Amino acid sequence: MNRRLFLSTAAIAIVGAGAATLYAGRKSAPADGAPGAAAPGAATASGTPDLYALSLPDVGGQTQALAQWRGKPMVVNFWATWCAPCVREMPELDALGKKYAGVQFVGIGVDSADNIRKFQEKVSVSYPLLVMGMGAIDTLRQLGNPAGGLPFTLVFKADGSISEKILGEIDPAKLDASLAQLVA
Questions:
Q1: In the chain, which end has fewer C-beta atoms inside a 10 angstrom radius, N or C?
Q2: Does the pLDDT at position 26 exceed 80?
Q3: Given CA atoms 96, 102, 103, 105 in this order, what sign does their dihedral have?
């Protein structure tokens, strides 16, 4: 992908994220779907994609199945290296991940493996970073993020149901409180 096209795509995504954040009021919304066991790429009964059915490469190229974390609470953060709010919240997500060892944190990059790998050399996080690429935008829309804006964070209960959707930068105190209730 040439640089101009990449930058144009990034600018459109950032504008879309800003507009979505404005309309969403940057508030967390309760979720209505519960992922169940399905074939990869399949949707649940509620029409949302089953993230547990996905297998994505990590930055080292090893395929990681999200199903390996089924049965425990999980925070999935969609992000990109070119997304300033995404980058800003990563240390906060990492700190919460360390505080709540019983909750699995996963970052899904809407970017290339090479960009994520270079980013990880500068900003290290303790949770796995997986690569979904720009194709993740469709998944974001199906998950209740119509603009496909970033960052976008989902909080899953241990039973696999989504307890919270956060469009825009997380509020660390609110997410901390949500996770405390989730593991109580």
A1: C
A2: no
A3: positive
